[in-house]
Specification:
single chain; about 260 residues; mainly alpha; hpI Integrase, Chain A; two-stranded antiparallel ribbon; 11 helices; globular
């Protein structure tokens, strides 16, 4: 296998009937780079990947949510859209899934878990006394421990109080007919909550962004955040740090003594 062969292979991934995303192609390049590094060490031959440049990939946009946006989303969890008829005033009703949906939103926000990780949680994975949550199926098969605060624990407890027959091995969040909540159903739910709350482009990962940025804004450190998010490296975590650095710059501009005192 030559460098030209590998370049042609990576180029072919862009011309499939369903082209792969730039990030996926980049991940393929990383895997090949790792394999041929091992191959080079074993055989003593130069790696053909040495002259294969990394494909360009778009940097995902980090869009943390504001406190007001989260509050609006929680209201959308609780109540239906305003309805009206010709014979009575406008009204709203409490949604049947209000307790479940509020618990979902607060777990996504407070634990920073990925959508698939939330869907895989079992009732027994959460200790409501301590807030400890065991993520057994993280990205790449790596498990980790995350935590919930009091508000999120209270929301989960209220939701589970409706499911008195739920055992430790049952899914934490269920959909219709008590079947495990599917990833597609979760994304659809969050999108619709965003529409009702007036929050554009809402998806589960935005809660993860919000957790990370608020963790750093409130004094958390990068290594702890890396462990909580389940990242192998610090690259993505540093991007959250860049956002909070911008916050510090803005705060300093407003609180600079020399500027405020007009020295």
């Amino acid at each position: 296998m030559t460098a030209a062969d590998l370049k042609a292979f990576l180029a072919s991934l862009r011309s499939l009937s369903r082209p792969l995303k730039p990030k996926t192609i980049y991940n393929v390049w990383v895997a090949l780079k790792s394999f041929y590094r091992w191959w080079s060490e074993e055989t003593g031959k130069p790696s053909p990947m040495a002259s294969v440049p990394a494909p360009k990939t778009t940097v995902p946009v980090i869009e943390p949510l504001s406190r007001d946006q989260v509050a609006a989303i929680l209201r959308a969890c609780d109540l239906t859209r305003e309805a009206s008829t010709t014979w009575r005033r406008s009204f709203v009703m409490r949604r049947d899934t209000a307790l479940r949906d509020r618990a979902i939103v607060l777990v996504l926000l407070d634990a920073g878990v990925r959508a698939a990780e939330l869907c895989d949680l079992k009732v027994g994975d959460i200790d409501l006394a301590t807030g400890r949550v065991i993520v057994r199926k993280g990205k790449g098969g790596r498990g980790r421990t995350v935590y919930l605060g009091k508000a999120a624990r209270r929301a989960v407890w209220r939701y589970l109080s409706q499911r008195e027959d739920a055992s430790a091995s049952d899914p934490l969040f269920v959909g219709r007919n008590d079947r495990p909540l599917a990833g597609s159903s979760l994304h659809r739910l969050i999108r619709r909550l965003g529409e009702r709350a007036g929050v554009r482009n809402l998806h589960p990962h935005r809660f993860r962004h919000s957790f990370a940025t608020e963790f750093l804004r409130n004094g958390g450190d990068l290594l702890s955040l890396q462990r909580l998010l389940g990242h192998r490296g610090l690259e993505m975590v540093r991007r959250y740090a860049e956002i909070t650095d911008t916050d510090l710059e803005r705060v300093h501009r407003g609180g600079s003594p020399a500027d405020q005192w007009r020295l």
